[in-house]
Amino acid sequence: MRALGVRAINGGAHWVLVEGTVTAPKLIASGAIEKAKAFDDNKALSNLREKLRALITDQKVDAVVVRESDYTPGATKLFPRVRAEGVALEVASAHAKPVELLKWPTIASRLGVENKAGKRKGYLAAPEFRGVNCAGFSAEDHDALHAACAGLAK
After folding, report:
1. Which domain holds residue 107?
2. CB atoms within 10 A of CB 74
3. Which of 9, 40, 83, 143 qualifies as a FRET site for 67, CA 20 to 30 Å off?
4. At what angle do helices 79-94 and 41-58 cross, to 10 degrees?
5. What distance lies between CA 102 and its chain's CA centroid?
6. Which one, of 19, 20, 16, lies nearest residue 29 by Cα?
7. What's the DSSP call for residue 12?
8. pLDDT digit string (tens) for 71-83?
């Protein structure tokens, strides 16, 4: 089984593709889809949709997990990220792939890791996660990795 984890950003996304199980994931590929400076928001989201569609079909993805924003009411600065999350959900659903939108507490539960603020910061900076080399990963890459792993079978 192959699971794609997506951590949306303004007009783009960080993504990680894994296969295996929750306890023994294997990294297949990772990357980022950035918003081009010349793109307005609509063009950026359209570009994100096309790149995710190609990734899902070319890599034979079985499931998609989108890391949901940790937002509070009135947090308008997250609106661009939330729109990108919606695009990721739509493109996965349109390609008949199981798709989930999960917040950190649910991801942590599926991974069997502690759901405490201090522990989460450690996970976002760790050089390794269950045998996957994370050296050089950004916090967004780690979020995508954890989401992808949460989409794997136990």
Report:
1. 2-150
2. 7
3. 40
4. 40
5. 10
6. 16
7. E
8. 777 778 888 999 9
